[in-house]
């Protein structure tokens, strides 16, 4: 089956980064009173990409090996409690809050999605006024719970938090090395066995028929708490599934081919995300794998996009 387009909706262009920029630059180098929840991830020879690509057009193949430094990683994606701590300390206002809306999955819209605006070709994504990190389904939905991943965050929001916390977003090779947990060139943080809809659900993805029926066989029909599911060999939770994670790098295809150059030109300005989300399924978007990757405009926000922070030095 041909791989369909990815499930990351992009905000319409027009209010670019210069319009949206607020206090992020002022936070750079300013470490807040952030309560880290870290584990060490060893350095050494790390692999970027895979010798067994499943979506070659995304640039998963042609593995490279480089030496990287050891890092301290947050065990889970940044939680609502952690992000709330940041906002209380700094007064930061996220991109979604400044725009006044964000993308919510159609079946999660309180009262139903009828009458809301959708994304052409990705009609399950609906523009919901007032949706943001503290009300992820919109103002008529329940407030975000502390243990859940902070979502509806753009790349600028993620980098602002990371700077305040004294950390940064990871590079792609660092992310893949950490996700593999010492297992080598495997598809997933636990190995090569594919999740299914029946009896093997080691991560939070979709089960059933996308986009109309999620059976919730893994226990969740939306995002799960950041420390749910078993950790990998380095003690990291949910490196695949649950929420996409922003990285420090632009999105580009690692190839010198004419096709890759054309795709890179079209993707200029997009930032790299890793890990997939609770909306991924093998039949639709098989990007909940370590080598899988996608890109999005830095001001795009949605209910399945968050981030994770890494630190170059151990906690003091």
Automatic annotation (TrEMBL):
* TM helices/strands, residue ranges: none
This protein's source sits in the domain of life called Bacteria
Name the record gives this protein:
Formylglycine-generating enzyme, required for sulfatase activity, contains SUMF1/FGE domain
* InterPro entries in UniProt: CTDL_fold (IPR016187), Sulfatase_Mod_Factor_Kinase (IPR051043), SUMF_dom (IPR005532), SUMF_sf (IPR042095)
Residue stretches making up the Sulfatase-modifying factor enzyme-like domain: 36-310
Gene3D superfamilies (alphabetical): paralog of FGE (formylglycine-generating enzyme)
What Pfam family is a match, any one? FGE-sulfatase
Instruction: Please give one Gene Ontology molecular function term for this protein.
Output: formylglycine-generating oxidase activity
